[in-house]
Amino acid sequence: MSVVDYIIRETLAKGIKMPNWVFNGLTIEGNPSEINDLVAQVGKPFTLAQEVHDMGDINAHGFPTKIVQVKYNNPVFAFHNIYSYLDAGITDEEYACQPMRSELSPNDPNWWSDTMSLQATDKSWYSWNITNWGVKWDVAVSDDNKYPDTYMEGPTENGNNLVVYYNFNTPWSIPNEALNKLSSQYPTLLFTLSYEEETGWGGEREYLRGECISESEYGWQCRNCDHTEEDTPYCEDCDFDMCPKCGWGEPDNENRATCQTHGVQSESIEGAAV
After folding, report:
1. Other CB atoms within 10 Å distance of the CB of residue 119
2. Closest Cα to residue 78, out of 7, 17, 143, 173?
3. What is the CATH number of domain 3-218?
4. HSE-CB for 195 with a 13 A CA cutoff
5. Which pLDDT tens digit goes with each residue over 1-58?
6. Do the strands 234-235 and 220-221 form a parallel or antiparallel pair, or are they unpaired?
7. Cis peptide leading into 106, omega within 30 of 0?
8. Which residues does 262 contact at the CB level (< 8 Å), separation at least 6?
9. Residue-range domain boundaries for the chain
10. All residues at 6 or more sequence positions from 59 whose CB lies less than 8 Å from its CB, including other chains
């Protein structure tokens, strides 16, 4: 199971807890006309149905809910504009409701199959987004979002092509299903996604004609020299990481400074640099 596939599975187990964020950089290159069409499509204004607590009746038992329409007049990049619940024939009421949950414990061996069975028929936002986008939240910038993490650079010329870059953050995983769909809508364009999760794993994927045509993943990346390792270079002697290429590690304290394993490793790195 790949890192991304594992995280997608863990997304469902963690439910609506605060996520770890994945930092995505998406570069799209190809025919100028299709690039311009794509930019117009993903940045098109829309409204989205959301269920919110109705705080007007504070004496009501459990705070009743109501559906409101959230405006996205300049979304920049929206999964909603790639494939929407409305495209699937789902109503606002069905989409905005709270997701179905398995009554089994995540530790139960049947939890995963039960969760998948529920998700296959659940039309609520949580299950539908994960199934069709690969993540539980859109990255579109709403009108009340004062600190957007989603932005666009370009398009710029590259020979006869145009190149456009999108930056956005997603919870727990990458939007693999959304990018597969967008790539199938623009089969001549090359999509390159570079991503890194806040705990250190990451990778790169290329999409063409609606498929992922290449991928590379790493479990750890040095913040000093960008060297990558499949697994975290963890030292059991002093409980700290250390880059096997440049020697970078944190925190730089007495335990690591006096660690015999790190001392031998540091001498090896310094000797290779001479």
Report:
1. 18
2. 143
3. 3.30.70.1270
4. 29
5. 443 444 444 444 444 456 789 999 999 999 999 999 999 999 999 998 887 765 555 4
6. unpaired
7. no
8. 235, 237, 238, 240, 242, 249, 256
9. 3-218, 232-273
10. none
